[in-house]
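Let's practice the habit of predicting before peeking. Look at the sequence and jot down your guess about where helices and strands might fall. Then scroll down.
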Amino acid sequence: QERVVESGGGLVQAGGSLRLSCAASEITFSLYTMGWYRQAPGKQRELVAEMRGDGTTNYADSVKGRFTISRDNAKSTVSLQMIDLKPEDTAVYYCNAHRIYRDPQWDTWGQGTQVTVSA
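Done guessing? Here is the structure:
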């Protein structure tokens, strides 16, 4: 069964850094676009960053220049390096695995990891 597990959230002051990691299992990793989404209280879940198997990336405008997504196809892991964090980055961050050409309803989601940025 496909599975992704996040780690690395926590509490940090504004201007600080955090690194999130996600380990995937039971998937052909290179065929998946791996993404990070976040959901703040009272808001809809939004895409933060994603990376296709070929290395192509896509970032939300709000995090460009501050967040960097990377993946290791050999280890089936994806990471999100976050710098210059802002209070508005506070949210639960979710790892997503989307197989190319497959309906997104079949995506695999992690349980989420809390990121809290204090002012």
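How did you do? The mean pLDDT is 96.
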